[in-house]
Specification:
alpha+beta
């Protein structure tokens, strides 16, 4: 009976620990994203708008070569992360300096719990994407 109770208690502790880690682990990554974005001057909401799993390709195609140029414009580089898995968090930017007529988003790529890349973008066909540290156009 004591052994059965010990096993049940152990399973409950593991389940609770897993839930806590899941909830607070994601929040700490979101906090790292917000701090990372703020280091570039971007202000975003408290919670991410969305997040998704990403894999940095082992070999860059033209699209990823161009995207990595955006990273390099902000002092970042995704080449050391080729073949690695991570998470892309997307936030709504609250301090974009000009009205572009649509929502502006900030993406941050997290690998091994640390921000390694990101961009500022809109989603319309006539929209834009630029690096986190690039100069902002004065008109759109």
């Amino acid at each position: 009976m004591k052994r059965r109770f010990s096993i049940i208690l152990f399973l409950v502790i593991c389940a609770v620990t897993g839930i806590i880690f899941s909830v607070y682990g994601e929040n700490s990554e979101e906090e790292k994203c917000r701090e990372f974005l703020l280091s570039y001057g971007w202000e975003v909401g408290e919670k991410s708008d969305s997040h998704a799993d990403v894999t940095i390709p082992a070999v860059f195609d033209k699209v990823y070569e161009n995207y990595n140029e955006i990273q390099k414009s902000s002092g970042l580089d995704l080449l050391p992360y080729c073949g690695k898995n991570g998470t892309r968090y997307t936030f709504i930017v609250t301090n974009y300096p000009i009205d572009v007529g649509e929502t502006v988003y900030a993406n941050v790529i997290i690998i091994n719990g640390e921000p390694v890349g990101g961009d500022i973008m809109t989603v319309s066909l006539s929209g834009f994407m630029h690096g986190l540290g690039e100069n902002i156009p004065t008109s759109y």
